[in-house]
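Forwarding the complex inputs:
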Amino acid sequence: MAASTLSSSITTTFKPSLHPPRASAIHPLPSIKLPSNNNPFNNPLISQFTPTTKNPTLTPLLSATTTPETTTATAFHGLCYVVGDNIDTDQIIPAEYLTLVPSNPEEYKKLGSYALCGLPSSYQTRFIEPGEFTSKYSIIIGGDNFGCGSSREHAPVALGAAGVAAVVAESYARIFFRNSVATGEVYPLDSEVRICDECKTGDVVTVELGESRLINHTTGKEYKLKPIGDAGPVIEAGGIFAYARKAGMIPNREA
Amino acid sequence: MASFSASYTYFLNKNVVSLSDFSPLYQYPNQNSTRRCSKKIVSVITQPSARRPATTGSVKNWMTMTEKLLAKASEKLHVVPGENLWANVDVLMTNDITGPGAFGVFKREFGENAKVWDREKVVVIPDHYIFTADERANRNVDTLRDFCNEQNIKYFYDIKDLGNFQANPDYKGVCHIALAQEGYCRPGEVLVGTDSHTCTAGAFGQFASGIGNTDAGFLLGTGKILLKVPQTIRFVLDGEIPNYILAKDLILQVIGEISMAGATYKTMEFVGTAVESSTMEDRMTLCNMVIEAGGKNGVIPADKTTYDYLKDKTTAHYEPVYSDDQARFLVEYHFDTSKLEPLVAKPHSPDNRALARECKDVKIDRVYIGSCTGGKTEDFMAAAKVLLASGKKVKVPTFLVPATQKVWMDLYTLPVPESGGKTCSQIFEDAGCDTPASPSCGACMGGPRDTHARLNEPQVCVSTTNRNFPGRMGHMEGQIYLASPYTAAASALTGHVTDPREFLQ
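Prediction (whole assembly, two chains):
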């Protein structure tokens, strides 16, 4: 499955888009072409999490005006951080930090500061500068089996708290994928080829959800991403809680 | 990562048996069967032998054990892999590092005054960061207690006195072992937990899998969870198990065979004479590491061994289910266990399989025996057996962390066979091992800095635990060799990674 690499004219293909806080990026995206699938899927849950402000160092390629959610496309844009295969949850968030409770806002922020600090020293460029709570990299590009290991939800939460908008990996471990969608902290996307071999940490990239593609502005290459698939209907509904409410499975939340 | 050859993989001492010897259930892919080869999994959809509805009268829907478990849980007559369903959950387990988060989600979504769906189906077992001065860790146990009091949760295994675990009559220890010992693991049921090694409970012939806080939060309010039915990979383990091989060697063999993502989104079903002759604790070891191959769940059919184990632990009624003979499996592997040799998983991945005897030049700094994988009573008995056979003292610090209070007590009371009535604890003491520690998850995943036996230096450790990723037990440059209790004890005696046959033959 070859990557379609076009040296695209970025300005013509890049649509002005909403640069949303993480949680609302996962809320109903009417433009996403999803395979119509009436079956609920097992990557459901989106928490109604209060999004923290996006990493202020992210600069849009074109000036992104805050348009309402009826925009035709949503994209994530920023610097990418490239990792290899089998990045396990101990590397994403070492176990000693699991005493931090993700649903506690103070501790949520702290979790972000430890994101990917478990990567070995062979990763010379660290994900977060010492003393910082967020990373300047908002998109992670990974290889196979990203997020393997523990079921700890702290893993996608730490990435999200650190300012990661999306992960683009060759494949995911199942619990991590499920937790990512459940928490809405990072958008887990599948690439069709080993993008991690062709991108370098610090490249400027755009991930376009509607078009299912990743554009590396630094190299000029474009890569097709796999459509979100079965997770679509639940994400479209706004997460498992919203999905279940729509289906009448659970009562509406009192205001 | 080990690459996967696009064919059935046999392991019969490296002699590839002719394909016609294979179970008649599976026909090698011929031009008629669909065959999708991916990098990791071979999908072979076999044709049942010339069966048409017209010839049989009624259409029969054969299902694997996991399919039956999920069909039952979702009140459907029949399910197929790939299908999404709402499953009723019989038991939700949570612990001290994930419980607070799950409860937080529950309250946020269902309201501050919401009540859990069934106060008797939530089992709260603090076990991860218990014996530590870390304030947040201690606070998390308090959070569990507050929630359990407020919700009147029936099964909460509390601990208040951290200085003396025995002063806490309710406290158990490692959640997965406690679940089994307290009779929560029952054939035919669905058990989920906010910990990846929840798959351990599949040893009892039930659907058991790990979930995150948000899923658990949803479940707390509704009693249901959205699941996609996985395909099943079957592992047929046949043959006599040599007296130097333990279940840990079996599962390391399997994971090394299929790689760390070899069972992603799949069920791992273990059958065969070697499984049938295994104890419940052996079976728990097998299913425990299913997650290390990416598996969604592991299952072992329930039998007399299961019923005997459960006899004195639960009076609940349960109904086992079994895979139909004609059920469709994604792939089937055959292992002749009589040919296996003791294994280790070298740093830094559970699928980095190697023969223990080929690592005999690796000098080690310490040995760790504990965790849900290798801290059960039989694991310690096995280690004691090797130490007894040697009669010598260990050459490196050897840490012992019993999984639960029951295991700890067994170490001090049960006689080790052929020892003249000695207990494990006596044998460990004679050999110069560390005193058995307070039961908990201990240093398996590092933990707060003051955790007993944590790897705080870049040392080499042979461990009976389940993961050896960089930094797993604490120090980023620590080197962890995963091994069976036999291999761990043998290594302690020599100060190098050692095949237990040095002492057991």
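The helical segments of chain A are 10-13, 22-26, 89-92, 105-113, 154-161, 174-183, 232-237, 240-246.
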